[in-house]
Amino acid sequence: MASRSRRLNADEGIRRVFDAFTGGDPRALFEVIAEDAVWTVNGTVPVAQVYSGRPRIFELFRETRRLTGGTYLSTLRWLLADDEHAVVVYRAQGTRLGRTLDIDQVLLIDHTDGIWRAITAIPSDPPAFEAFWRA
User: Fold this and answer.
1) CB of 88 closer than 8 Å to CB of 106
2) Number of other residues whose CB lies within 10 A of the CB of residue 36
3) Parent domain of 80
């Protein structure tokens, strides 16, 4: 039964993070993303980097908002989680420099008791992602 409890906590944490992105409780970001987490964004554009530690990860969130004039949205579509891993599909939408982004993206999350340790972001349409974020 403890295993089921952790899985529910992982699901709840994921939902809380996505709610925080849309104006929910911002404490969720501090409570769910580990201080030493590593967030990897795949690609070749400036935002595609390895962000080590919560301060750098939060810098990514701020930069995403800044570069899109606050239009960037991450809408949770579905998730699947077990005791150590989660897969999240979300809709990424935004505008910048006359360009529009509207694609699904995937987060691969390694977690311990619902606390995110390693996160990898993978766009479902890499050419659209690259075109949107290029300088």
Assistant:
1) yes
2) 9
3) 2-133
Q: What is the DSSP letter of 94?
A: E
Decide if 38 contacts 50 (C-beta within 8 A).
yes
User: Phi/psi zone of residue 86: left (φ > 0), alpha (ψ -120 to 50 degrees), beta?
Assistant: beta
Average pLDDT of every residue of the chain: 92
Q: Position of tokens 């930069």? A: 63
> In total, how many domains does the chain have?
1
pTM confidence score: 0.90
Give residue-wise pLDDT tens across range 24-47: 888 999 999 999 999 999 999 999
Return the H-helix or E-strand segment holding 125. Answer: none
Cβ proximity of 91 and 104 under 8 Å: yes
Whole-number percent of the chain with pLDDT over 90: 87
Task: With beta carbons less than 8 A apart as the criterion, state whether 46 and 122 touch.
Answer: no
